[in-house]
Amino acid sequence: MLVSLRLKAPVVLPCDPACSVLRDAVVDIDADGRIVHCGPSEDAPELPAGAQLRELTGILVPGLVNTHAHTPMMPLRGLGGDLPLMRWLTEAIWPSEAKMIDRDSYDGMLLGSVEMLRAGVTTSVEMFFHGEHMAQAVLDTGGRVVLTPGILSAPGLERLGTWQQLAEHTTRWIDTDGLRFGPGDRIELGYGPHSAYTLPPEAIAEISRMARDRGALMHIHVAETLAEDAKQREEHGSVPRLLEKIGALGGRVLAAHSVHLSDSDIEIFQRYDIAVAHCPNSNAKLASGTARLLDLLGGNVRVGLGTDGPASNDDLDVWDEVRLAALLARLDRGDAAALTAPRALLLATRDGAAAVGRDDIGALEPGRWADVVHVDVDSPAFPRGTDAPDVQLLSNLVWSAAASQVTDVWVAGQHVIGDREPTRVDRAKAQAEVRRIAERIAS
Amino acid sequence: MLVSLRLKAPVVLPCDPACSVLRDAVVDIDADGRIVHCGPSEDAPELPAGAQLRELTGILVPGLVNTHAHTPMMPLRGLGGDLPLMRWLTEAIWPSEAKMIDRDSYDGMLLGSVEMLRAGVTTSVEMFFHGEHMAQAVLDTGGRVVLTPGILSAPGLERLGTWQQLAEHTTRWIDTDGLRFGPGDRIELGYGPHSAYTLPPEAIAEISRMARDRGALMHIHVAETLAEDAKQREEHGSVPRLLEKIGALGGRVLAAHSVHLSDSDIEIFQRYDIAVAHCPNSNAKLASGTARLLDLLGGNVRVGLGTDGPASNDDLDVWDEVRLAALLARLDRGDAAALTAPRALLLATRDGAAAVGRDDIGALEPGRWADVVHVDVDSPAFPRGTDAPDVQLLSNLVWSAAASQVTDVWVAGQHVIGDREPTRVDRAKAQAEVRRIAERIAS
């Protein structure tokens, strides 16, 4: 394939398993938006005539993967701020969601997608309603999404339809448009049965069958809090045991949160290769607990990082999850090396992609989509700029560089953030639309 | 006193003990830089002729107080990123500090002071070397500092002098310039005996006497890790017991970290009214542990928040400490209301000031210095801007608003940050100086 765009920078982090640091390197991208080469400049092939060269001054990293989000909740940020999960859902969130209409999912997703892209988060795994509107928003901003429209029975949300209707809707959509579509395969569809406490077991079993038949991801909340899953634990031992018993674990499964897992639950995750979306900020803020990250990693369970919705975190900044995941793991073990800066960075990139079952994003390697983020080092966060030795540079990036150091972002080779601003949508207008929704819900 | 400057905003958070939210309110400031009035606009006195009115569109809060920092370490950020405390000190930090010269304390403090002011942190309690250079840097940026020059015996740092010489130096300085000086009392001096593991007990006892004789703050690391204080615990039961035994606890004492405290240690803190600088990010990153924040607060121990040095956190953003303090407290108790957003905000403002023994900063109240921060709400962090109800607004501020939402800062009524940039020093030049130091240390 012919190179159509070359990104060149003093430092490139391909996010290979060793978290290598390449100095003076390039990322070559073809016209379709796939990476064809990533390596030191001196080894790079000659740039073909007509190809564009973009020379950058900082660090190139793969776009971060947010493995669990409910982004259209942007207008609800800060509601029920100090409530635990079930009161937060029943008193603050569900009554507000009941006032949201189809088009709100477009506007919330649009602004949230911009917020994520500006932070270098190029992919999110989304569970919310009115998926077509969400897909359109992501197509408009130029982001990437794994879209698992939410399926649940919750008070006030009956107007969305029964779980059967919701599941059938997703099935029809997949059967019409395919599992992946859009330029650069930027939309992937999957199933989003909400949880074992908002759906009967037969619903989850049926949805799981639909997903497996189509090779689609099943994205479900598992063992987020002790209280919500009490009934399942009493009857079945645990939610993973319930899911195993009803035959819901054969396919691609992403278990969000997974805070309260016993050793035998982890064995179930291993047996069925279930992946975890670890959401440390949300789980701490709602006082749900902390997932056993190091035990999961030690057991070769696939783990990515998730922000959860912007109303329970309260942001969409995966860099924050990287830091908190590392801090909590270190406290857990009393060992400052329990989760190093480079290992934590991989969680948000390569591992996040793997958790979603994707080997075409999350790293800067030939054949993967060119989802690339440029981090500016002209900041006190980088006392020696890109000249620092590898360990210090990775520390500066992970511990000190905020999302605000991201200046440019490409998704499938398309330049979607330039000089910190979205290139395709009007950020002020997107924010004004979300404000209008927030005022309407409050009125 | 005549009002010379009035700040007017849709929301003012005076940080009174109830964390009130004032709507459409003003902060009136006299020519000396003290607050003379804070309240709703409708109750405000008529503005005298010649007084300046500044109308803002967001939220006014008191400047945040960073109760524990070593800010001149800016050039060392990211060194020894994944090491535990003692290896981090002996392998990465002390050898690098040994290469720092007097003037480096000016340059590091200058850039760090700018970083803090831009984040809305107006006061920091500092322990480092070459205090005169640090004081000059803070006078130059327009910030405020409680400066306790470091006193210790550490390998490679012998050139700084013996502990006696270091302590005498501080004493001479206080006896010459007084405890507080500079416009708006922007410099306060105190004593900084480093710790019980870097000083003999007789040194701490002697320094404590010097501090008490002068009404000065004694700022000391206490029980940061289990390993470093093992000798003291073996011989005396604990570091607080050692300090009590040698008579070092009679005066104003700020105990940084205080991670490993028993119930009887907390009783010692209560008995002598010892304050704690809680540093959750540093303590987690170095895997030292987590201080018993809720037990300390429940026991009426004064607690503020600290970032620790920029090389062990790795930033100087007190908002991050607010969030992590709340997250860890909630996880500790399994209760999402264990530390609410407003309570956490008070830790960084009013309580931080009280922890340092200051009732003239940390709140927007008549008689206090006008250290005021404006937080812009034109961001997805505030879905309803300043129109959100109090609970949501406080949640948006604490959980979602980053330091980057700070646009303007006043210290003792002087405008030191305008439109996100320092008004008195050249930020690019300050950053270049720190880079030069970092390169020299690495060479």
TrEMBL record, chains A, B:
The keyword ATP-binding does not apply. SUPFAM superfamilies: Composite domain of metallo-dependent hydrolases, Metallo-dependent hydrolases. Keywords: Hydrolase. Residues 59-415 form the Amidohydrolase-related domain. CDD domains: ATZ_TRZ_like. InterPro entries: Amidohydro-rel (IPR006680), Metal-dep_hydrolase_composite (IPR011059), Metal_Hydrolase (IPR032466), MTA/SAH_deaminase (IPR050287). The keyword Hydrolase applies. GO terms for molecular function: hydrolase activity, acting on carbon-nitrogen (but not peptide) bonds. This is Cytosine/adenosine deaminase. It comes from Allokutzneria albata.
